[in-house]
């Protein structure tokens, strides 16, 4: 097995968009995966029907991404290039979001893990007199991730096993690996010093999301290795995951986090910190005698208890 880094030439197809036109034309054939999405959406609707929307609040950003994904998917599959410049520009950006949805999900997980692992709350630069809140730090991370994506837009990894090769997007692979490392660090921190209750949701959701995304990627790799014969080209896999699976995986986390045993575990979580209590050997007590007179006495702790 060999893994090497390559830069895409202009004549070579882009890893993230390769096979999209065929996927768009044969979209109906991919509807065999729709029952999975329908099942997860049903679980989501069930929470709303039972008026348990509070269970969704720890996953608000993934909640928003799900709705955004549905809109993007519908527009991407149904719309064709328009005559006006505005429609063409709009289609370009929507297609870009569609291609990079996997990267968006992985980036979201990265930001959550980064903030929790490094306990980023507020940052103050004394020399510049700049104070950055936790929300602004997340915005900075988003900008960094966008720049990272643009810098390595044409880079990819080639995984070779004997006479077989598969091209993997470099940015997705890098963020995925970093997320796994951050998750391992967070688990170690939890074992050593505990974790805050609100961060427990991030821990559980990150484990579930990364585990499932990794499984999907491994399935695709094994399909290539085993030369799996399917009615759909293997290049469709990344689009199938973006449409039918990735937007709804967080719903699984919602249910797992609200199991009775898991809820008990979350409520028992505390961030353990070392606290040193210092008890003075003597206290200075000021005891007024008269309005114009004050007596200062040095008493030990035991004597103080007797006086009190």
From TrEMBL:
Keyword tags: Membrane, Transmembrane, Transmembrane helix
Transmembrane segments: 58-78, 90-118, 139-161, 173-190, 202-222, 242-262
Protein name: Uncharacterized protein
